[in-house]
Amino acid sequence: MDKTLIYAAVFILTMVVSVPSTYANPSLQSDKSPHVIGFMEFPQGIRHWRILRHTLKIEVPQQSKAISQLIIQAPSNIILRDDIDVSDQLDKKVDAKISISGQKATLVFVGQVEPGTTLTIDMNKVKKTAPTNGDKMYKVSAVLAGINAELPVGIAQLRVR
């Protein structure tokens, strides 16, 4: 009887931990515009953890224009810090001037992010001011080369279990 309870508890805990706590969606399903392809929270699945790393992945397709800026609007329960690392698909650092204003992070790239690049944006030491209640979303937009307007590229959503 005791072994059965232990195995059941281990199975249930394994299932709970293996369900992803976040997901991301592009705003436009297109091969011609940049879009969010992934989002991860670390550590995952710990609802009351306060200091986290949030990682966004953004694809810039071959048919897209280059990106000159990214704007990330954080959920209301998240405090962003200027400890943000940006790299490409080869794990090479991408230079960007980063500014934080309230819930908004603006990344102005020193050079443009060329088509065919997949960006990884590690937002280190973000702080949760309260446990996530309900769905909370990061809204991501970009300024493309030759276009002087913010275009939405997707959302990344924190999930609650």
What does this entry look like structurally?
With 161 residues, this protein is mainly beta. It has one domain (20-158): Sandwich (Immunoglobulin-like). The protein contains one helix and eleven strands, in the order αβββββββββββ. Strand 10 (136-144) and strand 11 (150-158) form a beta hairpin. The two termini are 29 Å apart.
Task: Give keywords.
mainly beta; 161 residues; Immunoglobulin-like; 1 helix; six-stranded antiparallel sheet; single chain
- Shape verdict: globular
The radius of gyration is: 18 Å
- Helicity, in percent? 10-25%
| Contiguous runs where pLDDT drops below 50 for at least 5 residues | 13-28
Q: How many runs of DSSP E, i.e. beta strands?
A: 11
Output the CATH class name. Answer: Mainly Beta
Estimate the strand proportion. Answer: over 45%
CATH topology: Immunoglobulin-like
Euclidean distance between termini CA atoms? 29 Å
Name given to the CATH architecture: Sandwich
Main beta sheet strand tally, sense and closure:
6 strands, antiparallel
Helices and strands, in order, run as HEEEEEEEEEEE
- How many helical elements? 1
In the sheet with the most strands, the strands line up as 1-11-10-4-8-7
- Structural class by helix and strand composition: mainly beta
Count of folded domains: 1
**Overall pLDDT score:** 81
